[in-house]
Specification:
Largest sheet: 2 strands, antiparallel
Protein name: DUF2231 domain-containing protein
Number of helices: 6
Keywords: Membrane, Transmembrane, Transmembrane helix
Pfam family, one: DUF2231
Distance between the termini: 42 Å
Number of strands: 2
Number of domains: 1
Strand order of the largest sheet: 1-2
Mean pLDDT: 89
Helix content: over 70%
Radius of gyration: 21 Å
Structural class: mainly alpha
Shape: elongated
């Protein structure tokens, strides 16, 4: 991937990642904690996680192209290094989304769930999935923030003036 409408593809594709990772993380956490939410969300949860998972290597690949076309410096290298670490988090979101979806589907099809939707024998598994989902969701969201922050610093560290240029009519 190189350019989209004259812009580096990375600067466009990365917005999918910035939106989808936290959205998937939030959906996973909610569905892992509240089985009824997972039942209502159904197949949408793992599909959302799959789209998120696919978007990460697309952004990374486009970022590698961009990295080869800009001046290399410590900020760019740090951003690239951090970006390489997001795929395992996205993979974790996807795997847990599939497990949470599968557990919710199994609970509704088994017919032996309690009034709250949880079989007593499944409670420890549900708790473990919820805790792991919260950890992965938090880790993925923090990682996206760190990557985005480093990318913004790499792109804008010397690209603007802290004082107005005076030519834009915005001096108050």
């Amino acid at each position: 991937m190189s350019l989209i409408n004259g812009l580096p593809a990375h600067v466009l594709i990365v917005h999918f990642v910035v939106v989808l990772v936290p959205l998937t993380a939030l959906a996973l956490a909610v569905c892992a904690i509240w089985p009824s939410a997972a039942q209502r969300m159904g197949i949408v949860l793992p599909l959302l996680a799959l789209v998120t998972l696919v978007s990460v290597p697309l952004a990374t690949q486009a970022g590698e192209w961009l990295e080869a076309h800009v001046d290399s410096n410590a900020l760019v290298r740090r951003h690239a290094d951090l970006g390489d670490g997001l795929l395992p988090w996205a993979g974790g979101l996807f795997l847990l989304a599939v497990l949470v979806w599968w557990a919710a589907r199994r609970a509704t099809t088994s017919g032996s769930e309690t009034s709250r939707g949880i079989r007593p024998s499944a409670a420890p598994v549900r708790i473990a999935m919820a805790v792991l989902s919260l950890v992965i969701a938090a880790g993925a969201s923090v990682d996206v923030y760190r990557i985005g922050d480093s990318g913004a610093k790499a792109a804008w560290h010397d690209g603007y003036s802290k004082t107005a240029s005076g030519g834009d009519g915005d001096d108050h």
